[in-house]
Amino acid sequence: MKAVLVTGSSGDIGSSICQALAAEGWSIYLHYHSNQQRITDMMQEFQERYPNQEFIPIKADLVEENAVEMLTSQLFSLNAVVFAHGTTEYGLLDALTPERMDYLWKMHVKTPILITQATQSKIHKSNQGRIVFISSVYGEMGSSNEVFYSTVKGAQLAFVKAYSKEVASWGITVNAVSPGAIKTHMNTHFSLNDLEELESDIPVGRLGEPSEISFWVKQLLKPDSAYMTGQTLTVSGGWLK
């Protein structure tokens, strides 16, 4: 049975990815940090709808020192990892503290790489391993007021390019999906006027839905995607492209 670890499963994009993959027959390790209720609700739904698949919740704070060991010790067979967790920091760079820099770096870059190291042998055994990062269009284009977030998202994309070459001969593909402005809690700080202005800048004229990100993750995990690696799919409605 094919199994995937989805970090940040309780988030808006993470939960949409879990919904899409469960419907495709995947067993899922549902990682979360604090939103246990959302995980509980998903678990109940999945167990009722997909009784022949396994759904295992894993709670871990990915910036804690023992996070990687705590998470990976609960993984058994594993075909794929989708890194869908994360947070941002709004404000000018000169107001960003070294502590927040370390936090964002560890969450978005160091910990995912350590998880990749720890799960590489399991994914290798699957013969059709898949690794997908949910990055950001800011990792490609950059954004003022989110300079360090743009930096760590750009680092994810650099890792995808490099690591994909290292494991290509093992049948492991490594790709990224870079969302633009998506309807998630990360955009709740926008006022109505801000949202209208943002939507006017997006060629398709609206924010994206989480399902429009999970659709592409689902494609990248399919066996037919074996020739696609080291790439970034930008899903932004044409924004910032």
From TrEMBL:
State a single Pfam family of this protein.
adh_short_C2
Q: What Gene3D superfamilies does this protein map onto?
A: NAD(P)-binding Rossmann-like Domain
Q: Entry's CDD domains?
A: SDR_c
**InterPro entries for the chain:** NAD(P)-bd_dom_sf, SDR, SDR_fam
PANTHER family xrefs: 3-OXOACYL-(ACYL-CARRIER-PROTEIN) REDUCTASE, 3-OXOACYL-[ACYL-CARRIER-PROTEIN] REDUCTASE FABG
Family per UniProt? Belongs to the short-chain dehydrogenases/reductases (SDR) family.
- The name this protein carries in UniProt is SDR family oxidoreductase
- The record lists the organism as Jeotgalibaca porci
